[in-house]
Write a structure and sequence with these properties.
Blueprint (H helix, E strand, L loop, with lengths): L4 E7 L2 H19 L6 E7 L10 H7 L6 E2 L7 H19 L3 E5 L3 H12 L4 E4 L11 H12 L2 E4 L2 H9 L6 E3 L3 H9 L13 E4 L3 H4 L2 H12 L5 E4 L2 H10 L7 E4 L4 H10 L2 E4 L2 H9 L4 E3 L7 H5 L3 E3 L4 H12 L15 H14 L1
Helix pairs in contact: 1-7, 1-15, 3-4, 4-5, 9-14
């Protein structure tokens, strides 16, 4: 058997835990099959999501291998947290000597991981490459662009994301593999924990700085949710909770606040809810995978395919536009092609490409 290739997987936020779980499972299956090129995976947690409900609960529930190290960076300004991650990730790379660094998504964690790796001449693979909102005021957009530029293996979730990379002159090492979030829903759906809620309700999440740090936008979204024709369950992200406490904002009308949901509880709420209201990228897709319409309280989205097929509506933060979308969202979602994000085998395809790169 060939010598195992060592991969350092870097995660830091809830969506990355979900994505890493399915790829880690695919790596384990590959190794059990004795395919001739085993992979040794080392998981490094930056500590970007440090709240137990946003971090440890996902590792426990999803049976993700325990991180070899947790940098414990926590929250702060972008420069402060990214710099702290760079220092810690560089130290771990030098100590563990991986053959490749694997990063996910568009937070500061993949940005810092990619930067630290390339400066030490370690190749980088980026899962969820090629996404673009074309709004460079969003920190996530800058993170996506830079991470893609630094990666030599780029795993795209859709044809659109692959074409956006091609338009930027990036074609080498680009692979359209599908979306690992689809893999996760297929695998974990039967473990969903259904909520003890009677009757129809909507599920909402709110966490992006463009909404939580702008008082007018935050007030507009909360006021619209309070006027929803069905109760709205809003699990509070730590950033949203702090913003509401700072501005002395409280739930009103049909709005019901709760603690962050575990992943399986989130799946249960998606199974039961009438529709979704969110500024999250991942939840837009998860709503689609559950056949639910999604009202996105942003001015743009990187998941354009969902808008094109009628599953998603961009409404910004204005009260009237959000309210007007409620009737649309309550209509059943027509059967749309789920193959837009692959067929649930993205993790296997990613592992096969990682193995191919290791053998090269």
């Amino acid at each position: 058997m060939a010598t195992a290739r060592r991969i350092l997987t870097i995660v830091g936020a809830r969506p990355q835990f979900v994505k890493a779980a399915v790829v880690s499972r695919a790596i384990a299956r590959h190794n059990q099959a004795a395919a001739g090129c085993p992979i040794e995976e080392i998981i490094l947690h930056t500590g970007q999501h440090y709240d137990p409900a946003m971090s440890q609960a996902f590792f426990d529930e999803m049976e993700i291998p325990a991180p070899a190290a947790n940098l414990g960076v926590g929250s702060g300004r972008h420069g402060e947290t990214t710099g702290a991650m760079l220092v810690g990730i560089e130290r771990e790379i030098l100590a563990r000597k991986p053959d490749r660094v694997l990063v996910y998504g568009d937070t500061n964690s993949p940005l810092a991981g990619a930067l630290a790796a390339v400066k030490l001449q370690v190749p980088v693979a980026h899962v969820e490459a090629g996404l673009r909102s074309f709004n460079r005021r969003m920190p996530e957009e800058i993170n996506r662009i830079v991470t893609d530029r630094l990666s030599d293996l780029l795993f795209c979730p859709s044809a659109r994301s692959r074409r956006w990379l091609e338009a930027e002159g990036i074609s080498q090492g680009v692979h359209e593999v599908g979306d690992v979030m689809a893999d996760a829903v297929l695998h974990y759906r039967n473990r969903a924990i259904l909520p003890a809620i009677q009757g129809s309700f909507a599920l909402a999440t709110l966490h992006r700085a463009e909404n939580t740090d702008d008082l007018a936008r935050l007030k507009g979204i909360l006021a619209a949710l309070a006027d929803c024709p069905v109760p709205v369950v809003l699990p509070l992200h730590p950033r949203t909770r702090k913003a509401m406490e700072r501005e002395r904002l409280a739930a009103a009308g049909f709005l019901r606040l709760c603690e962050p949901l575990s992943y399986f509880s989130l799946l249960g709420h998606l199974e039961r809810c009438a529709f979704v209201v969110t500024d999250s990228g991942g939840l837009q897709k998860e709503a689609f995978f559950f056949g639910k319409r999604c009202i996105t309280v942003r001015d743009e989205t990187e998941w354009v395919e969902l808008v094109d097929c009628g599953a998603n509506r961009l409404v910004g933060a204005g009260q009237e536009r959000i309210r007007e979308a409620f009737a649309w969202a309550r209509d059943p979602l027509p059967l749309a092609t789920r193959a837009v994000y692959g067929r649930g085998d993205a993790a296997e395809r990613i592992v096969a490409l990682l193995v191919g790169a290791a053998r090269a």
